[in-house]
Amino acid sequence: MSQDNGIGWSQGWARSARIPVFDYPVWLVLCRGGRARLREVCQRGRGAIRLPAEMLSLKLPQLFDIHQVPKVFREDSIISGYRHPRSSALDCILSSFQMNNETINIWTHFLPTWYFLWRFCVLCSTLNFLTDSYTWPLLVYMMLICVYPFTSSCAHTFSTMSAESRHICYFFDYGALSLYSLGCAISYGYYVMPECWVNSWLHQYFVPIAIGNTVFCTSLSCYSRFLELQFPKRSKALRTIAFVVPFIFDTVPLIYRILLCCGGSCSPTGALSNHCYHLLFAFLTCFLFTAHLPERLAPGCFDYFGHSHQLFHVSAVVGSHFQMEGVIADMTSRRTWLLKHGMMPSFLGTIGALAISLVINLGIIGIFSAPLLWKSCRSPNQPHSSTCGCKEQ
Ligand SMILES: [Zn+2]
């Protein structure tokens, strides 16, 4: 019985895997029309072998050098490994499994998304996000720490479908980063604020000002893309300012708390050491974003591995990890004191603030995207070709 089951299972498996199966004794093949049966089985076998061969013949997208792609796609000191500037969505997805100058950028934010999602799921199982309003700032922060690397990964994946799509992809990337800065402000406002600033004017208006910062950040960073070709330095400076301003605003209470601690007004905690590591990585992230090192020293040598944007992604994610640990540690260890002396987080000040900011930021992205979508609708659709005879744009 068990043997029959075993044979049945193996034959079923073999059929589903399209491997030829002899349904009769092998010696019968050699007599009574056996040759015809043998030929039939061989045909079936060939069919089974052809399937993976067809899969293997699926061509990966062709790559190009810097002078073969339009200016808008070029990256400073990256010479090779560019994808076709009018790739299809499928080509973009396939290209994430092929070594090109964006592959590591895609994966260095895609994999951390799953790490942060896992941390979020663990917190969901230990904290009561539904009814305990004290946890809502952390809920908002955790949602945004998952969203920003995922959006960035998608932006890097689909940024070579057209010049217009490239801009729109990065508008969403900047929008997600801008909202992440709001998540930081909400969690810092409720958990990280130094004791002497709790209930101060700044504390009360911390979240509304942070919402204003997201408007400033998204607008300025999206606008900076329009200057990229004509004024690359000005564009880079504006984009850096767009992200540095909300970061400084969010971090001022933390830096003040660290300074107080250094002055001996508090005892160093595990949360503060995490916050310090976060600040170190935040400065490193900013440096990598602006310096374009190491590829600037040796153009073409870091096209695939080790260029500044990849390091920038890794540094940002490591910084976010330490920040998350610091926020969680503060939330847990300061709970009793904050609930006694501070404000109870409200729905409007946390989830409501995120919803308002999300709508405003999507509106800003819509305003910047509309002329590009209009332009791409009016321009004739260029066919996707295997050779890239691209003119400069
Ligand atoms: Zn990026």
UniProtKB/TrEMBL annotation:
It is found in: Membrane. InterPro entries: AdipoR/HlyIII-related (IPR004254). The keyword Calcium does not apply. The chain crosses the membrane at residues 136-158, 170-193, 205-226, 238-259, 271-290, 347-374. Keywords: Membrane, Metal-binding, Transmembrane, Transmembrane helix, Zinc. It is a multi-pass membrane protein. One of its GO terms (cellular component) is membrane. Zn(2+) binds at residues 156, 309, 313. Its main location: membrane. One of its GO terms (molecular function) is signaling receptor activity. It comes from the Eukaryota. Belongs to the ADIPOR family. This is Progestin and adipoQ receptor family member 6. It comes from Oreochromis niloticus (Nile tilapia). The gene is PAQR6.
